[in-house]
Batch of 4 targets.
Target 1
Amino acid sequence: MKRLFIALALAVCCAVPCWGNDVGISSLDYLVDGKNYIDKPTTINRCNVHNAASSFLSCYVYPNIDTLTNVGNIIIDGDTLRRDDLRKALNMCFGSGVIDKCWVNISGTPFKGTWGGPNSPEIRNAQLQWLNP
């Protein structure tokens, strides 16, 4: 019985994302409704980082992967981004246009920053899940 309980506890624990009980949202929905997530840990699914800079990253939203037309971007604060993610982005995700290795999910906390629009606030204390390592 004890072994079953431990196995069950491990299965539940491993199924929960490492960043805790956050709210998942598509990147397109975040562009529209991001202001509703201010100060709430949030995971934003599927955007493409390019034009990476040390002070911030831009993660571009492509609702239709076939046409590759972006409809907006999500700003990630470079000062509070996990250091390994910032290094990886600066190494791989510079320049313009879609970069296959730079598709990510973002986990962090939205806040009213300088660059984000009224509906899509910036993200701080972010971690990136690289979708094409």
Note: DSSP finds three helices and six strands in the chain.
Target 2
Amino acid sequence: MKKRSVIVIIGSVFILLWTLLPIGWSVLSSITPERDLPSLSRRLVPKEITLDNYKNLLFESKRAGVTIQTYGPRFRQALVNSTVVAFVTMCTVLFLSIISGYAFSRLKFKGQKVILLSILATMPIPVVAVLIPLYKLISAWGLIDTYWSLILIYGGAFLPVSIWIMTNHFNSIPLAIEDAAKVDGCSRIGTLFKILLPIIRPGLFVVSVLTFLNSWVQFLMPLVFAPNKVKPLPVLISEFVTKYSVEYGLMNAAGVIAMIPPIILVIFFQKYLISGLARGAVKG
């Protein structure tokens, strides 16, 4: 075996362990009774396995027959909030990026390149730089602590890179395909939805999955703009750390549950993600 191959294997194993060990520790902590958590650092497997933390989050909040803080209803509501915001943001960004990407790729209009570059120029702007103006704007619209505040903010943040990806995917399709569709009597809208979108299916998956995942894991924005009624999972999980106690078991169980949707998306759409990113990152 070549020396370079050995280095690659060792590096890959190190990265894999670096990635999976924290996840494995969270899973073990989530199924360990609260009293045994301090000793978990000295053991690879807990003495006793319990699903109480998951029951408390998904069903009821009781411990030893005594009702504790009602994390269950709050967690379920936060789960719904995260799902609604991520899904609606995904659909909105996907639709707008398709229309915009097609326009920048196929239509010719005055200031086209300037507008596209202006949109892409917003990508490196840090969130904290626009936090106060955004808060004043969302507050003036009366959208603080609503779904729409997060959907609008996430959409504005993730749309530029999505437009860039979709524009490159449309650029990679030869114009001859559209010309053939027009000869057959297909309209521009029909060509877009019946011919072009099936061809760039990997790009659609890339935009959808990346938007959903980025919306799912946001913390700072919902902490500021949706701290109460529509708080998502990351904000709620942070509340398990209080001034007087830390609910380690519940925190880890909530983290494991929150990881399930991203893991499922990546596993099922891995093929499309790889091909879509490779194709969308290169100008056609």
Note: The first helix runs from residue 3 to 30.
Target 3
Amino acid sequence: MCSATLLSADDWIAIGTGALAAGTFVLAWVTVRAGAKDRRHDDEKRTEDRARDDRLRQEALDQAERREQAERTAREASASGQAR
């Protein structure tokens, strides 16, 4: 065997260190990308929830107004019926 083709322990340590650094970088990059995607999804969901809550709140207000109007109309009708 030719000693020029064999790698020393220091060479293997350097290769392993480089591979570990590259793997760590890729893992960090993937984690950051996944976190950004999760945040976007959470923001979209929060926006949808807020719109739904606003719609339900408005519907409840409209229903309360209709109920008050019906009660007012009933009182007026009752009052005018008693006045006769």
Note: The CA atoms of residues 35 and 41 lie 10 Å apart.
Target 4
Amino acid sequence: MHWMAKKIGTELLKKNLIKFEEYSIYEYGLELLFSSILTSFSIILLSCFCDSILWGILYLVITIPLRMTAGGYHADTYTRCFLISNLTYISVSQITHCLLNLNLSTTSWLLILLSSTLFILANAPVQNKHHKISETKLKKNKLYCRIYSLADLILFSLLLDSPLLHPYICLSIISVMLVALLILPTQMRKEE
């Protein structure tokens, strides 16, 4: 990824599409883009083998906006990020299957969703110590995180009793719980 980002950045420089001062920003942005595409593709592929492509897409649709605005744990390397992202999808998938097999009541699912949402609302956004953002961006993230969290809470609560959508809503609830859990390590480090 680093090699590809460097190569494309160099080509952009040669063609005078970017300024030399912007090179490192573009290189970093391209690395993130390639990493995100590769990780998303891998999760979609995994979902095809583990569950269904719809589960993978739904997982990404729920977690990406929340993670981008809520923050939380971020791996130090792209390889670690790739592995952790794939393992978290597998974990969310397996936890959802286990809880579906236990036939949890609607109240139990709502409690998982409500407690996860409240935790996110109380603790997000969390700053990544390696990539500090401005106070303005932090406020914007907080607003968007609240909007996403509350929209998820309302939507999933309303759709939870739908027999056809039940497994998908349960996956969505566990995905929200994952975002809350990924805030924990950062919060604990902040308190130390």
Note: Residues 109 and 170 are 7 Å apart (CA to CA).
